[in-house]
Design brief:
- By secondary structure, the protein is mainly beta.
- 9% of the residues lie in helices and 56% in strands.
- The protein is built from 7 helices and 36 strands.
- Helix 1 packs antiparallel against helix 2.
- The protein is globular.
Length: 645
Amino acid sequence: MPGPAVRHGSLCNRIEAAGGPVRRLGAVLWLLLAPQAAPAQTVEDLSTLSIEELGAIKVTSISRRPEPLSDAAAAVYVITAEDIRRSGATSLPEALRLAPNLEVARLNTAGYTVTARGFNSPESSNKLQVMVDGRSVYSPVASTVFWEAVNVPLSEIERIEVVSGPGGTLWGANAVNGVVNVITRSAGDSTGGFAEIGAGSGERNGTLRHGVKTADGKMALRGYLTGFDRRSSFAVTRGDASTDAFDGSQAGFRLDGTVAGGAASYTLQGDLYRNHTEWLDTTLHGGNLLGRWTHKLGDGSSVQLQTYYDQQNRDYLVATDRVQTFDVQAQHNVALGSRHQLVWGAQYRVWQSAFRSLVAFGFPDEDKTISLGSLFAQDEVTLAPKLKLTVGMKAEHNSYSGFDLLPNLRLAWRLSDAHMLWTAVSRSVRTPSRVDRELSGGGILAPSPDFRSERLTAYEIGYRGQPTANSRVALSAFYNVYDDLRTTSLTNGGLPIMLRNDMEGSTYGVEGWGSYGVAGWWTLQAGANWLHKSLRLKPGANDLSNFQAAGQDPAYQLQLRSRMNLTPEVEFDATLRRVGRIAVSNVPAYTEADLHLGWHVTPALELSLFGRNLLHARHLEAYDPSNTTPRAIGRSVYARMRVGF
């Protein structure tokens, strides 16, 4: 088939332009993988999960062990590979729009802010823990996720587990308002060749992947190359001549295998990337390497060891930022009798940060080493056949704030096979970052060595069930109490400014989602969330930022999706979403629609056409005047071809 060879050459040209490290890794991977024989593969598993299959999806984010989604005592939404494929998303933040329990706002071509249950803005979206195959991508420099540096080939994602609500007991500090757990497919599930190429009014992209498996099926290896080029967003203010076009390339591999008769398994995976955006002439480059060993013991328990190294480099027009992460963790899952399911473990992480500023603002010490260590344990106790209690605690120590205790208490009541109620009380913290403690400059801003962890106590209640044979519903309500939130304050009524913990208050809200099978070929999905915030300054405090750390959140979000398989080969999807007005930054409410028409020409060839943001030529999603100029997101049309070989 000549088509894939042409796309291979085009993509290699894209990688060639990106720089040496990505090019070298890509060449090595292709030389290793291309000669191997592998069976031709279909583009993807094209089946849509049934209502029953959706409830049986295994998730790991709630208990650090596989359990059916229908049994998870938390507000967790699962984005499947099928959801991502049919959405036409071309980046991880765009795929996260599918989760009704997240706020996703696009700042410009490269930048996004993402959060759960409030506090969304470039300054305040610091309460969401994000992991890719167990590797945290949360930055200790600014307490945020730099989404423009998180490159995950969407075709390799098995599922994304999105938890709204604290996850500190299992996932540590900074899992305050939620956890996003991106899980990619095993190399054994992606053998053969695969090529994807897309182009449209907003971007061009391509991915090339090849995977092989040994004859006995005990070891599999895949490698991939991917690249993209996204056009600049649109200026909102008159006279803004800036541009923010964004392009990048990445190469990576994954090796999976089993030994000891299948009782033990291992994973080794890594990536190298290089991206560039015209905004502040920023180049982002780095890589990661992760290894994991899992051993199943004879009594049904298991032991897992994981370690990874991650390097992120950000070269701005006005600064350079280097962060190296070394992490090692272990966990043990064990059943104690018939009533206790215990998981416990430990983690140690070291960040080495080097920040060089070319302007007045920076850190007094350019180099800094930050460490984190923790021990955790969580026990799921069966109190009665239909009643389970989960009790957990994590003790964590970090270089800035010392010890933090992160407890969690959950109760799940299985009313029947189709209905479950759950409730939870938990505590989590956001630990200080280098910006919180050390940022200073120009006699205007002084370091804040006494900045403490931001604290949350959360109360939740929820329902998950299957009211009818062809429907599923999940509802949850929460009441969050915050203390020691960040403020930007004068000292003794004048300069310098310091960052303090002088904000407190509460938020509450509801969120829900569901699906309904209208017919075997037609499914409707809906989701909504509503949020109210009541935050205030502590007595005698001031905040020059005017509550910027409180976030810029709409009061509500709504989404409705229709998925139709018109014939076994033709599919049609429509999405309508509504986002409320953001009063604090005067971002108007907006309603947008997306459409998708797909044709599976053969099991190995798929053609798709997507229309995004079709109701308006341009719209504004987020704006922080202290961070950047406002940029509008435009309507786009996008065509994609996927080939398996």
